[in-house]
Amino acid sequence: MMSEKLKTIKELADEIGVSKQAVWQKIKKESSIDLRQFTSKKGNTVYVDVDGQKVIKNAFFNKTSTKKRQQKVFVDDNVNNSVDGNPEGNEEILFLRNLVSELQSEKKDLHKLLDQQQRLALQDKKLLEEYKLEINELKALKMPQEDMKDGSSIRGEAQEEIERLKAQLKLSEEERNKPKEKEPVKTESKNGGNYGNEGDQMSHSEQMIENQFIQILSEKENQWTYRPDLKSEEALWQNFRSHLNRINLAVLEEQLLTDKEFKQVKVEFSRLTGTPFLASQWLRGENGVAQVLLEREDGKKVTLEAFRNKDISGGTSSYEVVHQVVPDSSRVDRGDVSLLINGLPIIHIELKKESAKDGFMQAYYQIQRYAEDGFFKGIYATTQIMVISNKVDTRYFARPSEDTAEAYARMKKFLFNWRTEDNQTVSDLFDFTRTVLRIPDAHELISQYTILVDDQKNQKFLMVLRPYQIHAIRKIRQKAAQHEGGFIWHATGSGKTITSFVATKLLAQNAIGVDRTVMVVDRTDLDAQTQDEFTKFASEYHTGQTTGNSVANTLIVGIKNQKQLARNLLSSKNNNTILVTTIQKLSAAMRSSQQESEEKGSNQFEKLRQEHIVFIVDEAHRAVSDEEMKRIKKILPNSTWFGLTGTPIFEANKKQENGTFARTTSQQYGPLLHSYTTKNAMDDGAVLGFQVEYHSLVSEEDQEVIVTQLNKGKLPDDALQQEKLLPTELYETDEHIRTMLQKIFNRRSVVKKFKVKNGFPTMSAILTTHSIAQAKHIYRILKEMKDNGTLLNGRQFDERHQLIDKDFPRVAITFSTNPDQLEKNEQDDELVEIMKEYAKQFDASPYQDEKLYNQNINKRLARKEKQYQSDGQWLDFVIVVDRLLTGFDSPTIQTLYVDREMNYQKLLQAFSRTNRIYTGKDSGLIVSFRKPFTMKENVQNTFRLFSNENQNFDQLIPREYEEVKKEFIECSTLYKQSEADLSDNPNDLKTMIAQVSAYQKLEKSYKALRSYDQYEEDFEAFSEVVEQLPQYQGKTENVKTKIKEMIKDEEHPEEDFEKLLQEIAFSSQLNATHKDVVDSFYINQLLKAIQLNETGAVEKFEKEIQQKDPQIQKMYHTLKDQLVNTTEEIDVAQLKETSIQNEIQRQLQKEAEEFGLSFEFLQSAMNEYQGDKKTIPYLTHLLDSMTLSKEEFEAKTGEKYRRRTKVLEERLQQNFEHLQKWKEEL
Fold first, then answer.
1. Which of the chain's termini has less CB crowding within 10 Å, N or C?
2. Is the CB of residue 620 less than 8 Å from the CB of residue 559?
3. Enclosing H/E stretch for 29
4. 462-478 b/e with 16+ CB inside 10 Å = b?
């Protein structure tokens, strides 16, 4: 029975004296009345309780509305416990207060949502109107009759454009019609924090680019399906679930995954994709299939397939496009476009508008920020490739190894443009999309042309091949299927080894009609380096490596001998096995087989005669002679051969005639299949350019006398002709060698050529000469000069740059190790003595085996292993004839000294040992000591030959000192003029940019100029300008700051503005070339000078430490005061070291106490921290040791406790980077 206190709305209206509708309107109008609190319902009748009746009556009868009363209540929270003597009044007030607060919050949210909806609707409406206008304009086009002939040509093109725009219109309408309340708008500018704010919305032009991009992907021939319905991470997960059900219907016995089972799948997925490397490894899967293990609710265990690498454009693969997906977490990031294969995000695309100030890099930094915020976790963990574009410039790159700023900083040099087969750049986004992102190409890029690198030490990362590598591999695969060979011409240093490996791998795994693949490399002594190279790629094979029998899924490298090679060749065919061997072992096996045939009438390789074996030869210009190849082809007549080389043999540089054997690369291997020249590589920034210095150690007068005597009293006018008459013996004298070594080891030259820092060389050099006898002669004189103290000569570079390494130079000598020479070397007592001397330099046991000796030289010269990077365990200077001049890769080799005549492939191969990219290296330095005019002509001929006919080879020819000197003088004049112009127009943007540009050109020119040895002779002539460079730089930095402010505050016509900005670099990578880092040893010398009370020492000291961190300056001042105020004998270096170590310990102790961390683990982490890697050693142990509670951590850091790993990592990185500055002072 209904209580008498309850009343209907009608009864309440009658009591108040108003209509029923008036009561409903009052309830609706008054924010304080919430019927849900005061009403109950029976049937269709609503009943109001006593409290509700009071509230409604108050709304009608009180002079002050409920709302105003409520505002008054908020003014004083300390209301009495009774209102108007009514003890229930306080409860009513508290109730109303909470109610109003809640309703006001809801109201605010509704207003915000409404505002977002209105903005979106306006944006879509504007876009819609523009599309309609474009369509109407196209429909209205009147085509001239004479241009149309049958009336179809131009109309057809217009109709295609109309259809495209209609599709875009449909796309926009779909977006507009979606329920907006489910799609919160991104609150962070798409530009990223560093690039200004364009408002909360994606810009109009960005949206148009994105829509057109999706439309192109969705075109039938590109095979991607647009999924506008997938708008959240949860929707992506459910889509992935649908694909798992689809692919594994039979395995699941048509019982679809339950919620509980899919939750288990997500947990396993998270484990398998925990790092970018693990995610990549999982996608490659066992035998190319990514799988997830699942225990079903009924206890049955099943293996679910998620991704098949070989199902390209068919099989189980499904291709979908999503965009602007909203994350299911507190993150506000949402990426532009993702491409899904079987529901897994595989390729991520970030787009910017065409006029974006830093072009595609703005998109790059945005992806970096997403990564650091954890965007590429969860369902996005499988992302493999990133694409960035501002419509007119498009790049792609592999996902970095870590989601950190440091990993993304390292990746910057691996942002690739796409190039067509003939090396034309594809910059436009839409052209890139139709070329690279279509299916099957996009799937192939992931499954075949992206590889895992794991050197078993500290490198684990994903590598995507460059376009030229992909084109070359496709050509090899195509020709192999047709049983036709050929050669690939790719510039030295452009990654031929990787190209060879991937081509070999894909032929082994996927080629139809290929039975076996063998990769052939040259020189037995390179086995170790080759094996290390190929070991990196073993992660492609889940059962690892073997050096014995063929095993499924195995990469076989470093075959020990011909018997082992024969055994592997004769083993059962397996399409996932690769053989990597040397031509020496292959030839030995074939010779043995030939001998067996002659003696027995048949041989062990008889069964291979019908098999199609593909040989891929690295360094094809010299690895396998045509004679050798023909011998092998006689035994294996069905074999196909491909050669890869950076320096092909052409007609101009063809080999000497030898019967009917091939004299050029194309005669031996077949046609050129693909080329990527040194010019292409330099344009792409894949290698450095060269700088050549030509010296003659024979004076002009002596040369004329010698030539006249040899030429029957006649002296040719032309210097080039004179040089041709100079005999080799002239360069084999002690005098020539001593003069050459004095030039090489001049102190000022050493600082530059060996990049001396803190008193020690950081880069190495090779000297090549014409014979083993000459190499030994140079070695002996060098040892003698080093022992008697005459090797290092000349004045110091300056007192701030000095070589203090007492053991410099650490020297080795090595020669060619062909089998015949090896036998001779074994009887060479002098070589045995040389190997002893070599070992003695490093306190190592003497080498008896020349092969091991040469391998150790390779490692010490390469400096790739940690043990050869410190404590004087590296090599500074190696004397060679031909060995190491081809195929040897060491980025720390900066200089090649040439004491011989070289041309064509030998010259370019030798030069290319120096132009690998390395921090602090600007170019490969070449110094020639014989016949300068001849060498100059040879350099020109070489670069002409190894450039495509369409390329301007003159751009490749290294500039001589005189050219650089002239350029520096011109740049100096231009800069002075720009300063005068700026003085006349101090606020003109164009004039300001011209000044900055002039300075940057001057600085770059100076950097090149001072690297030449001849500069030392002209130093005085340039001193006036050089001394003013710091002042010029200061002015330029001020102007740059002013330009940035003007860009921010003022409007400039966008097109002109963009062109102006391209003239200058805001973040100059020139690094103030005139301002060098102060060497620690020089500071020590100044402290000793202060101790000895030398005049001017304190002033020099104060000047030098000005560049230091303020805390470090303070420490140095304390040291100085100690030395000034004592008469005691103090070990300055020891005192300094103790001060620095104490400070490091103090700071570590403070950090340990503040966060309750283990001091021992913190100390170990600091000792092992490497600045370039930016990872914190023992981070897990440190977190486990932390004694701070959740509340203490959050109060101390202002961060959530769940983010403690990231917070601690970032904090320690910052502190360790600061402590690194202290360590650098040691």
1. N
2. no
3. helix 20-29
4. bbbbbbbbbbbbbbbbe
